[in-house]
Specification:
alpha+beta; 60s Ribosomal Protein L30, Chain: A; 6-stranded mixed β-sheet; 27% strand
C-alpha cells in the first residue's frame, strides 16, 4: 500500500510543510483545517459560527478531493482557544453529522496557527 497525497485548490493551501490529506488504502488522514478562505488564504476571525462553517467547508473540499464525504468520517478532533465557544461550534458541527456522528475529542489549546480560534481535523474511511 502506498500513500497518496490529496490536494485541492478548493481548500486552503498548507501553511507549513504538510499535505492537506494523505490517503493510505481506505483511510484518509486529513490535516487540521482553520478558517482560512481558500481563495485569498486570509484568516476569518469574526463570529465563531462563521469560522466553524468555513472550517467545515474546507474539510468538505478535502474529503471531496478524495472522493469521500462526511459520511466517511470516523473520528474528529476539535481544537478551541476558548471552551466558551463549544456550544456555537457544536451547533455548526452537528449540521454535518446529523446521523451516525463520528467519534470525537474536543480540547482547549493556548493557540492555533495564524491566530485561529478553531481547528478541526478528521479521519475518514472509504468503507465507513
Amino acid at each position: 500500500m502506498s500513500k497518496k497525497i490529496i490536494h485541492t485548490d478548493h481548500a486552503p493551501k498548507a501553511v507549513g510543510p504538510y499535505s492537506q490529506a494523505i490517503q493510505l488504502g481506505d483511510m484518509l488522514y486529513c490535516s487540521g483545517q482553520i478558517p482560512l478562505d481558500p481563495k485569498t488564504q486570509e484568516l476569518f476571525t469574526g463570529d465563531i459560527k462563521i469560522q466553524t462553517e468555513m472550517v467545515m467547508s474546507n474539510i468538505e473540499a478535502v474529503l471531496k478531493a478524495a472522493d469521500m464525504n462526511f459520511s466517511h468520517v470516523v473520528k474528529t478532533t476539535i481544537f478551541l482557544t476558548s471552551m466558551s465557544d463549544f456550544s456555537a461550534v457544536n451547533e455548526i458541527y452537528a449540521k454535518r453529522f446529523s446521523a451516525s456522528p463520528p467519534a470525537r475529542s474536543t480540547v482547549q489549546v493556548s493557540g492555533l496557527p495564524k491566530g485561529a480560534n478553531v481547528e478541526i481535523e478528521v479521519l475518514a474511511n472509504r468503507n465507513a
